[in-house]
Amino acid sequence: MTDLEHIRNFSIVAHIDHGKSTLADRLIQLTGTVAERDMQAQILDSMDIERERGITIKANSVRIEYPAKDGQTYILNLIDTPGHVDFAYEVSRSMRAVEGSLLVVDATQGVEAQTLANVYHAIDADHEIVPILNKIDLPASEPEKVCEQIEDVIGIDASDAVHVSAKTGVGIPDVLEAIVTRLPAPKGDRDAPLKAMLVDSWYDSYLGVVVMIRVMDGTIKKGDRIRMMQTNAVYGVDKLAVLKPEMQDIKELGPGEIGVFTASIKQVRDTRVGDTITSEKSGTEMALPGFKPAQPVVFCGLFPVDNAEFEDLRDAIDKLALNDASFSFEMETSAALGFGFRCGFLGLLHLEVIRDRLEREYDIELITTAPSVIYHVFMRDGTTLELHNPADMPDMTHVDHIEEPRIKATILVPDEYLGDVLKLCQDRRGIQIDLTYAGSRAMVVYDLPLNEVVFDFYDRLKSVTKGYASFDYQMIGYREDALVKMSVLVNEEPVDALSMMVHRDRAEARGRLMCEKLKELIPRHMFKIPIQAAIGGRVIARETLSAMRKDVTAKCYGGDATRKKKLLEKQKKGKKKMREFGRVSIPQEAFINALKMDG
Amino acid sequence: MLSPNSLQVVLPEDWRAGGFGLYVHWPFCQAKCPYCDFNSHVAAEIDQNRWMRVYCSEIRRIGAETQGRILDTVFFGGGTPSLMNPDLVAEIMDTIRATWPTSNSFEVTLEANPTSVEAARFHGYRDAGVNRLSMGFQALNDPDLRALGRLHTVAEAQTAFTLARDTFDRVSFDLIYARQNQTLSDWRRELSKALSMAADHLSLYQLTIEDGTAFGKRHTAGGLPGLPDEDLAADMYFATQELCAKAGLPAYEVSNHAAAGAHSRHNLIYWQGGDYAGIGPGAHGRLTLNGTRFATETPLTPSAWLGKVEKIGNGENPRTAIPGSDQAAEYLMMGLRISEGISLSRHAAMANISLNSNIINELRDNRFIETDGDTLRVTAKGRPVLNAVIRALLP
Known about the structure:
Number of strands of chain B: 14
Number of helices of chain A: 14
Distance between the termini of chain B: 31 Å
Strand content of chain B: 15-25%
Strand content of chain A: 25-35%
CATH superfamily of the largest domain in chain B: Aldolase class I
Oligomer: heterodimer
Number of domains of chain A: 5
Largest interface: A-B, 25 and 44 residues
Number of strands of chain A: 33
Helix content of chain A: 10-25%
Largest sheet of chain A: 8 strands, antiparallel
Strand order of the largest sheet of chain A: 11-10-16-7-8-15-12-13
Low-confidence stretches of chain B: 1-10
């Protein structure tokens, strides 16, 4: 156990690509925490998908021993947090477990929307913040300008910002010194009853559920009987360890320390992030304030391409859910797609990550239906309905009004793209709240309907600004609007998986675009196929996909027979993989691509 | 020839409904055409005597396995068989006649390029026993011939054709349509000119961009603009049917048109599910021996095939037996290409199960196919979308 004076706990706040993971790698490397031969880039991001996309999804932690210039050795605990807005919740709770933050800003780029969002979490958690200017080795870096920006926009003193290049290693020793000298030591009472915060938990196939804790008061040892104060469940500590970042057993953890334990806990759902852990007997009476659980805000249907794989999908989803309590699911039946699951996610990135993992780690091909948000449907009889799936929309005659979730979106964008961004927000039914300048960049704040953002808003934003805009949002509540359910009929058959909620004024334009897209996405058949969009019984848009006119092999002689037969059989198999609606086969990618509004 | 539809089929001898032919592959060309995905090679020097010995050895090998059969057809394909010395063709034909009795309507086809050099060999081929010439015209205007990588001109082709008409009993030529920047009226004009040349048989192929060809690569890289879309290609196909029928050369197969009695008997063996032996590099065959139908195949490169025959006296890769279900699928795919269609009972005997009657009814109700007793054939509406019809009928 280490005394409080020699502990520093911190997290790193940064916008994506500003060098958070590289800085963490350097700190780990320079202190010899990981042997040189075991070092790899983005060492704290253990999922393939994290490394591939260069993002952090899951919080992780590492304990670093640092012999400081004052001759004493300090224990530095870094909690690495996700930067993406979808995982903002994970960020905010991790922040509660540490006393300080390093604010990393790319000296060539300046402050971005994600930087802002995350630094506010740190300020909310009363953190001491050390600004770090990264990438100072690049000729395009402008440290003075960026310091000014940090002071203007965030409002913290940046005069003693540490200048580093995480890539070359310049300035890394200064960062370590700054952690020791500028961040506060944790507080706590070793003799008080155990009080520890459950920071995170995950499932490990060998160890079962691993629980990450921050000890506030008291001590915890292997073999201790502990109680989770929210669930009142009691467990025996089987294993106590610190992360370096590999697990290393430790005898005892005291106040201010961060570590992990296992206790024969079956699933992640049995642990509540933010819960207070104390001793079974004579524990503390005072629980920590705790957190609200993360609520899914985006929903979509996941269906196996091959219906026979439904049970495999169920298993895969169960397994993923073991490790991700923020993802919700329930079985769903679609007339069009058969059996599948209606799943709830923290945001679109979360959706993509889960879908990717299902396809990749469990080898199940999926059809993803249109993402939707939760609508509050107020019925004429006074009841209220939470609508997760447009297909479940009740008859409009019984509906009094519908409310939809709205968000406050903050977008930072170079001046030259401002016009395009404003147009995009306007097109998505946005209401401008604020428009200010931070240096040469405009900061636009919009009130937007979440359903206009969940699908391809971020893609569109990136494309109209050539990638120079940054974006973040927070939920601000529900508001009534004129919303209707638009259904799509292919060859006179309704395709429930394509129905969506739209604003009445935009229904026609959306319907037209959707029909045009489907006309391109559905291959020609042997007969012509009408494609219609309708509200209730009224058709608002229509396209006709003409019948196939030519599909015949020009040359087929003795030497071609084997090859051509195989080709036709392969095509037939491919067709079987498509979804049949009446007699029409719709390729799986059509379900998502039909919704994109880049037309 | 026996009509397959009237036959009461006994499966081990099923091939008799289609007949028995020999395919001889000559793998060399003077240059590789950019659209061609056939097994062809360009070589500086060819030892034609060596090829003669190897071909004849293969003929005798297969002859020993197929004793008692009557040979209906021989087809010299390639490559460019008109690069073969007439002596070589004569020696092969002598060996063939010494190996099998030939049918009364014995057909011997040779593929030829219409250049003057090759035309000089026509008489030699006729004397060797070739009685049908199939000429690779591909286009009837010079710029398009160049674009297709052809080495002849239209004038040269016409001279060669006249000579061929005077030399052989039957002459056919090939054209490719739906070429880059070709309009419907361009094609109608070109086809009318072709029909006025009094061939008894025409093979009219829609240009197909195949993977692994020069055109395939260019197409993937976006370097093949002006190819017609599906609708224009369909219009060209229908114009082809109309003009050929009017000229007395109706389609008897997707891309093949013939005057009465002038169809390619050899190719009909493929489409009617007959037996054929294939010799030469990359040649395929279908042989029914002791009640089992085998697919045969040989190594693709000339040197590998020659070496194999010379070393072990057999140019084939190991044979594979074709299960009944695959035989049935192949018969369906090949047989529906021709206007006479397939015999349902023959198909059922191969597959051991009948075709799905719901699908047959639906296709028939929509006039893609018609049935007539035991016969199932595609209609004029169904033929241009034959692949879709076959996909629907395949199990």
